[in-house]
Amino acid sequence: MPPPVDFPPEVGRALVALAWQTIAGRLGLDLPPARRPDPRRLQDPAARERQGVFVTLTIAGRLRGCIGTLSPEEPLVEGVARQAVNAAFNDHRFPPVSSEEFPRLEVEVSVLSEPQALPYAEARELASRLRPGVDGVIIHSGRHSATFLPQVWEQLPRPEDFLAHLCLKAGLSATAWRDSPLAVFTYQVRHFSGHLG
User: Fold this and answer.
1) What's the total number of domains in the chain?
2) Can you give the residue range of the structural domain that contains 134?
3) Which runs of consecutive H residues, i.e. helices, occur in 74-151?
4) What is the DSSP letter of 96?
5) DSSP class of 114
6) Are residues 173 and 132 in the same domain?
7) Per residue in 140-161, pLDDT tens?
8) 11-39 per-position pLDDT tens digit
9) Would you give the DSSP letter of residue 49?
């Protein structure tokens, strides 16, 4: 699997346009021709790679939906279309995106590298080994699990805060990362974004 850092930017832009087009189609809307994805870019080998992918939707900088998959289950073109629908209409934290909201949406597509286990001996070592702004993080503890994309470091730049909020997202206590060993994995992303305006 090629590292996301080498992902062609023109293919990334086509994947963003594909997410737009998929959401618009579900809403019964039509995208202007200039905003539609370039079919040639969607045939690029990079767009056919099987990699984890997340689609994040925001309006005026506020989260409006974010869903994806960590595992390389399907080619990116199929994964982006699926996760665009999920982020827009199936994120249980938000009501479905409306036609009125659609023109204000910003879409971000994150292409993930394969997660790698991050071994550590104690909580302090775990916090020190994370790379703010670089690493996406996955935690597992029994039936509980959660992930934050690297972009979340912008809101939570301190590793201790990042880990505390990630534990809360997983349904654990904010101190779970200090109190008991967690299975921790890290990954990196190449992300692309755009809006209709």
Assistant:
1) 2
2) 116-187
3) 76-89, 123-129
4) P
5) P
6) yes
7) 999 999 999 999 999 999 999 9
8) 999 999 999 999 999 999 998 888 899 99
9) S
